[in-house]
Every structure is written in C-alpha cells, then in structure tokens.
Amino acid sequence: MKQHIETLHLETIVGGGQALGTLENGKKAFVWGGLPDETVKIRVTKNKSRYVEGVVEEVIDPSEQRITPKDPDSYLSTSPWQLMAFETEQHYKAALIEEAFELHNIVLPDAIEIYTNGVEYGYRNKVEFSWYGDTSGSVETLDIAFFRRGSKGKIPVQGTSLAHPRINELALKIRDLLSSKNVEARSLKTLLIRCDQTGSCVWQLYIKENLPDVMTPDEAANLPAQGGEVIYSDPKSPASRITDRLDSFGDVVLKDELRGTTFRYACEGFFQVNLPIYEQSLRDMAGWLDDNPVVDFYSGVGTIGLTIGGNDATLVEIDENAVREMKRNIKELGISAKAVLAPSEKAVDYITSDKTIILDPPRAGLHADVIARLLETKPERIIYLSCNPVTQARDVAMLAETYGIRWHRGYNFFPRTPHIEHLVILDLKQVA
Fold this sequence. Notes:
Layout: E1 5-13, E2 19-22, E3 28-32, E4 39-47, E5 51-61, H1 75-78, H2 86-102, E6 114-115, E7 126-134, E8 141-147, E9 154-156, H3 165-180, E10 188-195, E11 201-207, H4 217-221, E12 227-232, E13 244-250, E14 253-258, E15 261-266, H5 275-286, E16 294-297, H6 305-308, E17 314-317, H7 320-333, E18 338-341, E19 356-359, H8 368-377, E20 381-386, H9 389-399, E21 403-411, E22 421-428
Parallel strand pairs: 3-5, 6-21, 11-12, 16-17, 16-19, 17-18, 19-20
Antiparallel strand pairs: 1-2, 1-4, 2-3, 4-5, 7-8, 7-10, 8-9, 10-11, 12-13, 14-15, 20-22, 21-22
C-alpha cells in the first residue's frame, strides 16, 4: 500500500503531546516525532475530515531543541519526548498546564513549577512487553517488542531506557529461555515485569495457549527475580487480563515503603511507577492537612490515605483487587482506616462538611455526582491530584464559585513522555 506523505511546518505542542501543524489543504495535523518550528515530512496514519494524524518520516529543518533519542528505534512507542532537551520538556509541561486552565478562564495564582528530581531515565518500575516472531529465516526468532506508534506493527527491542535496568535484564533472560524451548510468539501475549525500589523483580508471562511446562520450577528459580507467574489470558481480549493462573513461582508480592509506611502490592495491581516523585507529592499534600478526618477518593491500594490520612481515614476505590490489597495494608499497619469498595458516585455520602477531601481520579476526572456533593456539603479543603490537567481544570471550573485555588504544583512523574501530574489545593471561599 502506498504511503501518504505530507510536508508541513510544525507550530506548537498540544495537550496530547503531539506537535501541531497545518497542511496545504487547511487540515490540522497532529504529529508524533516532531517539534515546533520544524519543517518535516510525515507519514499520515489517520485521515479524518478535519484533521490528520501522522508520524515524522524525515526532518527537513530541525529545531534547535532537538536531541538524539536514547531509544532511536522505539522511543515513539514508549516515550515520544525523548527527542527534546529535558529543560524543554519541563517548559512544555508547565505551558500545557497553564493552557488547560486558561481554556476554562482560570488563572493559576502562582507561576507553574514542575517538580523533578532530575532523573530522566531508569525510573519506571513497571514495563509491559509484547512479543515478536521473525519468520523470514529458516528458524523463527523470538524477541520482546513494543507496538509501533501509528500502526499495528511491532518493533523488536532489547528493553527500554525508561525502565530500571533489572527489568530489562530479566526480560531478556525470559526471552532467551523461551527461545531455547522453541516457544513461538503467536502463543504468547505479553510479559509484565515490575520491581521494587531495590530492584527486586516479579514477572508475569501472559500466554494465549496452554503450553505445558512453558516454565519449570528450576528454570524460574534461575531467573534474576524474586518470583513470577504463568497466566493464561483469553486470546479474544486484546488486553492482558488474568483468565487463569497456571503456575506460580517464588514470592510474587512486592513491597515498597512510602513515607515510612510499607505497602504490599501485586505485579498486576495499581501502584505508582515513579516512587521518588510520588513521595514528594505526598509530602506536599501532607502539608495541607489539618485535624479534620480525611476521605480519600479513587484511593487505589491506599498510598495517599494510609500515608498521610491519619488513623481515621476513609478510602474509596472501585477496583476490588486494589481494595483487597488496601485491606491487607490496613491490617498490617494496625490502624482503623476504613476501606470502601464502591464507585465514587455511589460513595458521595462520605463527603461531609467536616472532612478534608482528597481526590486522585483517573484521566476522565471527577464524576459529576462527586462535584455536586462537594458543592452541596462544602468541605473546607479539597486536595486534588490529577494525571490530566485538562479534566482537572474542567472540574475546578465547576467548583470555582465556591472554591478558590490556594496552591498548586506540577510533577514530572513520567520524564520523556507528555504525561503530567498536577496538584491543586482548593479552599472554601469566605462569605463576605
């Protein structure tokens, strides 16, 4: 099939992380692999009536901010901002937060700071690899891989520079072991590896066919990992979901400490990816707590409420696996916190005027019923950490007649990617 190639000048960075330009026919182009002020040739990957999406194939006139990515073959799949200087990344992340709030006519009270510890690579404690089999030779090869952005193809890799080195090392060991047993890529789904802050790893091999002895206990014991599992995942689902746990080896539960509190979590469970930056956000949130009881919505395994929420926190979470881990953490900590398994909109009765409300929702932001309850009960303070400043700004705008922004800060949880976290402290406005 003939590729659709367009030449254009890129103008700015937009919220999704792409560079934006305009084609000769007037269509907007959202482009991966480009920077503002560059002239590029792009391969169009999606053509809609009013816009196109594409990937840079050639840089004709490069930006002064362009640098060579550490993962030149695969960076677009994992961390598309590897192509810019880190200082430039920090600038764009602050600009995108400001733009998100300006769209809702909200002026943030202070200059936007993006906190970073300066660690650009090796910070990820969790990576999910796909599999690739090359059938062009006489013998099929097996490689770990990532999906190629803008297509259904895959890129064989040796790992990713974003990951803790132990994750890449373990992934290659598992690949080599499976290769030696002539396991084919078509039988495999993904390989999920997670490590704690010491580098101790747990792996999960998701397979689409029930392969007898795909991993023996002796083979698993020789891997550089504390434990792992072989999991059958329904091939009808594109996601790596657990249909049946076939084998388990060693210790498959990870432990990490946050602000002196030890948490246990499963390899597939929700836990923060960049713990040092997350700890700074916890320190910042803790500084805005008073003596009021805490209600922690969208609480995951409890990493916010159980570290800074005191002995009387209420934690609301919709995922039953996360709540199971949360309850175990509460029991081991020996505190009286309350775990509530419920969607946020079904637990709004826990929002009362005498509580401090902590919110850490998914990218979609707050449910309308949560916002309505906040406006009805008027708690004095809301602590709102968001992974999507666009929906956070929308929610803050709906609260703006009743609440004002006391303080805010951005966090670079995911260096070399467009993802941003932003903390807003909202205080009840005083009636004159």
